[in-house]
């Protein structure tokens, strides 16, 4: 039997519902408190058909299982999700068909990763690309929890060498580096081509090599004295502006 330590923890009603909707066969164990009995019912039925364990537990026990007090009363333990390598010369349909695809270059905070995935799914993106930068956050309990099901709603890919991948995407996909200054406003980007929106590390931004590999630079014009936004907030604003 797979050890609990080898499983991802999906916490909260939205995150749990998303993993059951997309890949119920990967859910190995399931726990909930009495207050979540109604939401848990369909998931229990699905696991009963798969002959997998599920149990109603006390809140203190669920916090121990979840590894956090922020579990939302319901937790699914699932096999880790595989993230395939991106073939930029033959981009998958999820990138070609969507107006915008976020590409994350060294975003290290799992909460930012989850928040960007949540916004991307909300605004109709179909995929998310992670860079091979060693600072890049991967799929984790915190990322799944913050994404509120967003990570499960998106096709996920990894680009080991992001500058090479970005150059290879052209001309079918427009690559746009999100920079704090010096770029064009979102409205200036062409509307007839899918956009790979490249977002950089929280502290250092995008590397010069990544920026140089992009066809355009895009900047949100500030209207007040604060110079910049948290990367997850900037991502949401840019995705909305480009997808509209």
Task: Report on the architecture of this protein.
This protein is of the alpha/beta class and 244 residues long. It has a 6-stranded parallel sheet with strand order 7-6-5-9-8-10, sandwiched between helices. Strands 1-4-2-3 form a 4-stranded mixed sheet, with helices on both faces. α5 packs parallel to α6. The mean pLDDT is 94. One of its GO terms (molecular function) is RNA binding. This is RNA methyltransferase.
Share in β-strands: 15-25%
Alpha-beta classification: alpha/beta
Total strand count, please? 10
> Which word captures the global form?
elongated
Q: Helical proportion?
A: 25-40%
Outline the secondary-structure elements.
Layout: E1 8-11, H1 13-22, E2 27-32, H2 37-50, E3 54-56, H3 59-66, E4 74-78, H4 93-97, E5 100-105, H5 110-122, E6 127-131, H6 141-147, H7 150-153, E7 155-159, H8 162-169, E8 174-178, E9 195-200, H9 208-213, E10 216-218, H10 231-243
Parallel strand pairs: 2-3, 5-6, 5-9, 6-7, 8-9, 8-10
Antiparallel strand pairs: 1-4, 2-4
Helix pairs in contact: 5-6, 5-10
Keywords:
244 residues, 36% helix, alpha/beta, six-stranded parallel sheet
Task: Summarize this structure briefly.
Keywords: Methyltransferase, Transferase. Helix 5 (110-122) runs parallel beside helix 6 (141-147) and helix 5 (110-122) packs parallel to helix 10. This protein has 244 residues and is an alpha/beta fold.
């Amino acid at each position: 039997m797979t050890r609990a330590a080898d499983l991802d923890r999906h916490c909260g009603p939205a995150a749990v519902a998303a993993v059951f909707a997309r890949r119920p066969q990967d859910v190995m164990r399931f726990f909930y408190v009495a207050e979540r009995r109604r939401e848990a019912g369909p998931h229990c039925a699905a696991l009963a058909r798969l002959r997998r364990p599920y149990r109603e537990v006390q809140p203190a026990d669920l916090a121990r299982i979840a590894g956090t007090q922020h579990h939302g009363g319901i937790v699914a333990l699932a096999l880790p999700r595989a993230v395939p390598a991106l073939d930029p010369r033959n981009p998958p349909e999820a990138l070609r068909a969507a107006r915008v695809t976020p590409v994350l270059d060294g975003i290290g905070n799992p909460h930012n990763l989850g928040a960007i995935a949540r916004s991307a799914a909300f605004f109709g993106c179909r995929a998310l690309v992670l860079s091979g930068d060693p600072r890049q956050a991967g799929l984790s309990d915190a990322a799944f929890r913050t994404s509120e099901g967003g990570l499960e709603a998106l096709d996920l890919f990894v680009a080991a060498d992001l500058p090479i991948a970005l150059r290879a995407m052209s001309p079918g996909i427009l690559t746009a580096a999100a920079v704090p200054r010096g770029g064009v406003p979102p409205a200036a980007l062409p509307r007839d081509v899918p956009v790979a929106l490249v977002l950089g590390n929280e502290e250092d931004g995008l590397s010069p090599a990544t920026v140089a590999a992009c066809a355009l630079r895009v900047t949100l014009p500030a209207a007040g004295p604060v110079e910049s936004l948290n990367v997850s907030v900037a991502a949401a604003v840019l995705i909305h502006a480009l997808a509209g």
